[in-house]
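ingest -> validate -> predict -> emit
validate: passed (alphabet ok, no gaps, 406 aa)
predict: started
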Amino acid sequence: MSQAAKKDTPEQAEYRAYCRKWIEENRPEEPDFRLPLQAIEVMDEGVKEYLQTWQKKAYDGGLIGVDYPTEYGGGGKSGMQTIANQELAAGDVPYFINVIGLGMCAPTIFHHASEELKRRFIPQILSGEMIWCQGFSEPGAGSDLASCNTSVVKKGDKWIVNGHKVWTSLAHYAGWMIALVRTSNHDKYKGLSFFVLPVQDTKGVTIRPLIKITGETGFNEVIFEDLEVPDSYRLDDVGKGWTVAMTTLTHERGAGTLVGPNTGMSARGATRTQRLLELAKKCRRNGKPAIDDPFIRDRIALVAVWEEGLAQNQRRAKVPGLTDDPMRIPLQGKVSFTELAQLAATVALEIEGQASSLYIADPMAPDSGTWPLTFLNSYGNTIAAGTSEVQRNILGERVLGMAKSK
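emit:
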C-alpha cells in the first residue's frame, strides 16, 4: 500500500480501489507506433485518435474531471482527482492528449466564464472531444506577458481580433483557444482582456507549425486577421484579462484549486532513478557495466535524492502545519520537477557516453534513443509556464517577501 493510500478516508479508499480496478480492466492496447514523450508533440492523426479515444474512455469511467460539478460534466467528488492521478501514474497507462485543455483551459473557464460557456465547453474539454490551446506568448511578449499586443476592438456587437500568438502547443489540432488580448493601450495591465477564440478551419485564423530542435513540432504560431467573435466569448469583464490570466498560470504551475488529470508526460511506470539504474546496467564504460563506475553511481544517487525530496515535499504540502505559505510548495514544484527532468536526462547521456549521439531512428540507440530526445525536450519544460528564472522571482517576491528585482 502506498503512503498516500494509508491516509485515505473510507470514501477515498473506495474510490481508489475503483480506479485501480478500472485501470486494470480498461488498459488500452499498446499501439504499433511510438508515442511522443509529451502530448504537446503529437503530430500524427493516428496518434491523436488513439489518445483521444483513451481520454474519452477514462472520462466515461470517472477518472477525469472528478472534482468538477456534475452540471459541467464532472464527477462532483471534491478532492478525488488527486487519487485518480496517483493510480493513473502507478498504472503504467498513456497520458491524455488534451493537456492544455485539462490543465489550464477548463479551470479558467470554470472560474471566469459565463454559465453558458461553462456548460458548453467544460464537458468537451474533459472528454477530449475538443482539443484546446493557450494563446499567451507573442513574438514581443514572452516572459513579459503583460506586453502582449494582439488587439481586440469592439465593432457593434462583435469584437475584431488581430495579432500574432507564438509557441502555441497543439494549435494544429485545437478547435478553441483561451487568449489574453489587448482592449486598451491606456494601461499595461488594465488594458488586457480575456477571450475564448475558435481557431480550427476558421476565417481570419492562420496556423503555422514551428519545428523544434528534436525535429518534432507541436508548437505553432497563430495569426489573427480580422477574426470576428461575439461578446459572449469574453471571460470576465473588459480590462480583467490579467486577473483571468493569473488563474490560468496558477493552474499551469500546479498551484490551482482544481487539480488537472494525469496529463502531459509519458513517464510511465518506473521512477527516473529506476530507469537510470536499468540503463546503467545495460551500458558499458571502460569495458565494464556503467553501474560499476563510482561517478555514475554518485550521479544516479543525486537524482534519487531529488526524487525522494520532491515526493516528501508533496506529502508535506497536505499538512497545513508544515507549510508556512500555501503557494510555496506548488510554485517551487514547477521549478524543481522540470529541473529534475533535465538533470535525469543529463545523467542518462553521461551513462550512455558515445551512444548518446544515437537518436530515435537508430536501431543501436540505448532505450530506443529516448534519452537524447528527453534531454532536448527538457529545456522546453524549464521555459514553459514561466522560465525557472521568472519562477524564482515569483517565489522570492510573493512567497518570501523579498524586494522586486530590477
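The two ends are 49 Å apart (CA to CA).
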